[in-house]
């Protein structure tokens, strides 16, 4: 195993969010960047699930987000001027096309874990739990602090290595 392979983050974990919900996650670094998967659960069950792919320099490559309302997919085009995707619901498909800039980020409403792994800096696009997408230019959506590895800090967290 090379030194680069040894330094790649491959972990899973769980912990509590400030609102009392539980985040369960996995992260794996690879040649094409970092892939996050996570779920947020409450006492009533699964609230939502997500997948984020970041390129090797930490820019958004792809977002997949699922709630009881449907599924959202979003990815910047190669020139990074537009992000395309769609929302799939029981009633059909809604295409998405958002003006995009590398200064933008994405937040997930009511999900400080997902917002943190997406690099939310208080400016960009916010995905609602209803899968609506809105522009946000103020830091009204909270994100968790990250540790030195880029992993969001959770209360009473536990972690495990991912086996290859």
| Average pLDDT reading | 92
- Residue windows where pLDDT falls under 50 for at least 5 positions: none
- String of helices and strands: HEEEEEEEEEHEEE
Strand tally is 12
Number of domains: 1
**In this structure, how is the largest beta sheet organized?**
9 strands, antiparallel
Strand neighbour order, sheet with most strands: 8-7-6-5-4-3-2-1-12
Report strand %: over 45%
Q: Quick summary of this structure?
A:
With 164 residues, the chain is mainly beta. It has helices at residues 3-7, 112-117, and strands at residues 10-16, 22-30, 33-42, 45-54, 60-67, 70-76, 82-89, 92-99, 105-108, 124-127, 133-136, 155-161.
Structural overview:
The protein starts with a helix and ends with a strand. 7% of the residues lie in helices and 52% in strands. It has one domain. With 164 residues, the protein is mainly beta.
Secondary-structure topology with pairs:
Elements: H1 3-7, E1 10-16, E2 22-30, E3 33-42, E4 45-54, E5 60-67, E6 70-76, E7 82-89, E8 92-99, E9 105-108, H2 112-117, E10 124-127, E11 133-136, E12 155-161
Parallel strand pairs: 9-10
Antiparallel strand pairs: 1-2, 1-12, 2-3, 3-4, 4-5, 5-6, 6-7, 7-8, 10-11
